[in-house]
# Entry
Amino acid sequence: MIKLAAFRRTFAAISLFGIAAILTGCGASARGRYFGKTVAPTDNILRYVSGSEPESLDPAVPNGQPEARILMSLYDGLVEYHPKTMEPIPSLAETWEVGPDGTEYLFHLRKNGKFSNGDPITANDFVYTFRRGFKPELASRNASLGYYIKYSEAYNSGRAFVKDSNGQFLLKKDFSVGDSSAGAETHDTLGPMSDFHRYLDSPERLTVPGDKKELDKFLEDDPKLKAAVTGKELVPVKAEDIGVEAADDYTLRIKLYQPAPYFLGLLGHQFFRVVDKNVVEKYGNNWSRPENIVTSGAFKVETYRPYDVLVVTKDPNYWDAANVKLDKIEFYPLDEQTTILNLYKAGSIDAQYNHTVPAPWNETVRQYTAEYSLHPEVATEFYVVNVKRPPMDNVKLRQAFALAIDRDALAVFRKTLKPLVDMTPEGIFPKYEAARQKIYAEELTKQGSTLAEWKARKYDPEKARRLMAEAGFPVQGSAGSYSSPNFPVDKVSITYNTAESNKAVAEFVQAQWKQNLGVTVPLENMEFRTFLPLLNKVDYNGFARRGWVGDYMDPYTFLGLYYSKANEGGTGWWDPKYDKMLDDANNTVDTQKRFEKLARAEFYISQQQIIIPLGTSGTSWLKKPYVKGMYPNPGTLHTWKFVYIEPDQSKWTTNMDNIMNEDDPVVTAQLAELTAKQDTLENSQTASPEKMAAADTGK
Amino acid sequence: MFSFILRRLLIIVPMALLVVTLTWVLIRLAPGNFYSSEKKLPPAIEANIKKRYGLDKPWYQQYGLVMLNIVKLDFGESLKYQGQTVNEIIGRHLPYSATMGLLAYLLALAVGLSAGIFAALRQNSLWDHGSMAIAMLGLSVPNFVLGPTLVLVFALDLYILPPARWGGIANLILPVITLSAIYCAYIARLTRAGMLEVLRSDYIRTARAKGLDEKTVLLKHALRGGIIPVVSFTGPALAGLLAGTVVVERVFSIPGLGNIFIQAVLNRDEPLVLGIVAFLSILIMIFNLAVDISYGFLDPRIRYE
# Structure
């Protein structure tokens, strides 16, 4: 390092090569307050690093964040993300209503919505977009996001209704199939009545696998079902059967099979953003190629050179074009951290996506408070525990290992991680956290404990050793030389996918366990795609590293990971009681009460210690101070129409730490305009239902 | 001569098939697949994906299809990048690598040949030792060290060259220098060694004895024989350079074939991996053939049976 620095200095000194002139020209503003070269661009173009090369520009197909960042600029949905909080705000849907039991949504669309080719966007386009997303032949990996929509899962999985000889369909409630959610009766009636609406509103039908072989297997376990289904006509669930309906050209109805209070928040996902039926049908698989593509968002494709750059340009056809401030965005598909930082420092890019600051640069970069963002994310880092394999099938042992990690020290060491002991991230769902505080206090009092004691889970090596002993693996020795001779170290390991940061954390945790429990857990690293099957099949020993990024802004996106027998938690743990608690919570329409029920479920699962929480992830990215309207929101997904370039240096961002509380008049005004109608509607709704109806008919 | 070329051309086909078969087996042995992510997919969705990409068919049918595609020189559609064919992807990214590779090789030839020749002519002089020391350095500094060092100095300290990405000529300077360094060194050393050997041979003494001037002796007689080692090195080197070099393309984020190849492997994008492997193996075999043919022109002592 020293040699290198000396080399650099000498080199700078011998810049007699005529470079001196250029140096004084552009180097002057390059040092000092800002990190690297910082000159506001004059061309009103944002240059943004969006992550690895997008799989496709078809919003239904890719499920990654790199694509989400890009597709948000190209497609518009019923709702859009709030630039700071990521809560849903009106977009193509100007207003919406939710039925009293939370299963029916009625969206009132703007009449001036247009695709980039000038075609109007109507409710029928949304119906088409949704049906297409669930089409089995499309094989979208996002489809399960929308499974709350009635019969969408059945359609996507090729299932069939069962019709008896009288032409009546068998109903799900008559057979308690599979999981605990037997489909509560739902009667939400919003907007005009139609045959289709009546069908959607009727009790949920039974669906069975459409494939003969799978059907036999399905029926084998349930003689009652087998008797009922045998000899009946199977009617495949079609695209037209799913719970979306264009009540009229500008009114869209969505029917869920059970209440999902976070459903609205999901609708900002690219999977639900609208595509043009004519274009998709005309070009088939090739419709999203640059020469054919038609988009619905604030920007449209200008040039696309894969692995190099995707240039999108402001679309004059966009309904809100007046509020789109950038002329263009250049998305650079890069994922090499050092390269990204180099480009940033050299002033070749204006902003980058999250977690892109290389660890060795953390200390340096965080001093530039006008540019560096470290805010909590809707993402957590934790170790999953394989609860099926001894010795970790012992809950006391799991708790011991969880308690034996000094999370504050980890946060200091890792720098971009905030200590976490819960299943859900901290500082992301304030209302939920308040409810949780109350419930936990209650539950703990019942157990004869206190909230303070519960919070001490952040690090309690004494208790950890006690629990080890109770689990049958006593820890001997004194501080500095603990050992636990009984513990089978060969039966556990920390498995993680190869990444510098994962390795650093694993080594840290390993050292903590060694120091506090006298156990040296071996480390095992694996290439990402080799690691994934192990995780998904729960085929690892002891502990495996995991990060989880929420799909939407609700604690359920974390708690739901361990829901149902086939859950994606990767721990092998399943408990019907937990499922019931979650179902119960989600069937509660009142937000506060629902949060309290979710908190009880979280308390319940926390005691099982099936995961060892490590921290809430921090955003860790940089933007140049002249980029405004771009916030470190919990998912680092920027609503591009709010972003602008500020040439006036006195208005540049001065402190990223405070950016969420600062009031940017430009953004505030734009937000107020967008949400005005929906806000009025919701206020009148809470005031009196009659007024709401009046407001509705007045439109 | 003709039958020699024909024989060599014919052998390319089974060789390519063999290489692709081995690669196919390796990919199939590697755990994971192109659609896996942190989020576990419901079985129904996984089934939909398998059906769509024909992964639900028995392995021999899938293998047969791969072989058939190779013979047709149509490698099918990428799994990761929907709607893009492998041929299209290769065609699109080859020019980036080729431009960079060709420039780097030309630079390496210019620098390496002149350095080598001068070193050989002034054997054991300061010039000889100096240039060979630098060449040694060029060989031993890996390009993942050289590249970032150049970036550090020219892009991040002096702000005179862009640190990465494709673009204008300015963007090319650092990657081309980085890429050519090792080839410069190789060529310099090979040229020097070849020239030294040739300069001591009998036919050079004869040429001098005939009274030819030194320039003719060197350029017409010595050089032709002296650069044969460089020529045999050029075949595989050029094929490798044209097809992209992973490290330099990663360091400078050049959208070349090497970069795509690595991503394809990490993404488990089977058709793309197979396509690039087949393409590269054919390319290398053709270049080697070209090299073998060129020997005949350079050295009259070599004959083809």
